Amino acid sequence: MPETPPMTPPMTPPMTPPWTPFALFGALAVLAWGAAALDAALAGGRWPGIVTGPLRGAARELVRQRRRTVMPDVPLVRAGVCALPAAAVLAAVVLPLGERPVADLSVGVVWFNAMEVCVWWALWLTGWGVNSLHPLIGGYRFVAQGLAYELPHMFALITAALGAGSLRVSEIAAAQRGLWFAVWMPVAFAVYLVSAVAMAFWGPMDRPVGSDIAGGVRAELSGPDRLVFEAGRYLLLAVAAAAAVPLFLGGGVGPALPPWLWTALKTVAVLAVLVWARHRLPGVRMDRFTRVSWLVLIPVSLLQLLVVGVVVL
Amino acid sequence: MTAQQVAFWALAVVSVAAGVAVFTVDSMARATLALLVSLVCVGLILLLTGLTYLGVLVILMMVMEMMVMAVFMVMYMMNPGGLMPMKMVHNNGGAMAVAAGVFVLLAGGAFLVPWPVRRGGLPADPTRALGVAVMGPKMLVMMVVGVAILATMVATVVLAVHRGRGDRPGDPEAEP
């Protein structure tokens, strides 16, 4: 190490315009709403009920009374329910809304993953605190699912970071001007999509809130709690889809259109695929699929990491 | 006081208060959550010192580790339901004596050690500089030891568990 290292303050990223947090909230809300509407449409809903349905549902939950269980741990339930949307939004602050994110952290990928694992706590606290059987089972199911998928998820994220030589999400997006990472590291992209669906307990991996245990974690939630939980669930799905864009799909790079529009279009496309997959793929039993995760997904993601490492070297 | 100092003191107070809460609450779930809050505050304090990677990594690891710990603590509780109040302290006199002794030792060290004066400016990558300062020429040894510990853990589990609980008759890999 040199005696007098250069003065480069690491904690002062370039300032983003003050309206970007509002743009992020707005975009996430619209994406979550759109995901709920598309989900309703695929379930056989009709126009315009599918579009107004989520809003009417939200209004209904706002005025509905809370359901009381015997001896609940109310602070833990509130903490868990509120942590779900909070974790989703905090994970999204490092994702570029075009070219710059709200907070351009130098370790954005690690931050994103840290906020994702907060969802484990959110679901476990909710399932535990209401003191009811099915939510408890759902909470434990999600912890097992998170543990099974965290390692492949982490390796997929690290592969993208390795390809760009940076943990900063905007630099990972910028490194794909020539070729999308989804093209030359397809295994990492596939592993990311599978594990992100698992981390967002969506589609085939929605057993923590599955119908076989009467709704799982959310079985006893009603009123505002239910609203916040469901909103957080769709927000988390939207954020999982949005993260695939800067990490694997070239971020805002594209011809003719401005970067923010390309980012939005790609995010909508990924989100639509994830919502569609829910209606086309059967549910997955976690105790069986954990083996697939550890014996197949982890080795192939490590091999992908090795290949990318060799190419980068 | 700068904003950084205000943030430091706020995080420090919350961290200690959450640490106290670990021993005053009466449920394992609450105690583990309080411990998580305390450790996340420590991670945020690391962020304040410019150790961005270490700070975020501490938050990531602690969120996961405390989750696993909560599962195990609940599993080992005498009252696995866990919602009945339970006593979180035992052997109060002895524990207080040990805790006070350790606190005096550590706090005394913090006051008595001659603190170095900063030479030069902030390095471009404080996490890297810290790693080099702590590990120095032993970096390769530490890396090898890390992998060896991981291999030992995996091998121990493989040897200890002949068949996993996930195995069921009819699974292709399951032995007869």
TrEMBL record, chain B:
InterPro entries: NADH_UbQ/plastoQ_OxRdtase_su6 (IPR001457), Nuo/plastoQ_OxRdtase_6_NuoJ (IPR042106). Its main location: membrane. The chain crosses the membrane at residues 6-25, 32-51, 57-76, 97-117, 137-161. Gene3D superfamilies: NADH-ubiquinone/plastoquinone oxidoreductase chain 6, subunit NuoJ. It is an enzyme of class 7 (translocase). Keywords: Cell membrane, Membrane, NAD, Quinone, Transmembrane, Transmembrane helix. It is found in: Cell membrane. It comes from the Bacteria. It is a multi-pass membrane protein. It catalyses: a quinone + NADH + 5 H(+)(in) = a quinol + NAD(+) + 4 H(+)(out). Its EC number is 7.1.1.-. Pfam families: Oxidored_q3. NDH-1 shuttles electrons from NADH, via FMN and iron-sulfur (Fe-S) centers, to quinones in the respiratory chain. Couples the redox reaction to proton translocation (for every two electrons transferred, four hydrogen ions are translocated across the cytoplasmic membrane), and thus conserves the redox energy in a proton gradient. Belongs to the complex I subunit 6 family. This is NADH-quinone oxidoreductase subunit J.
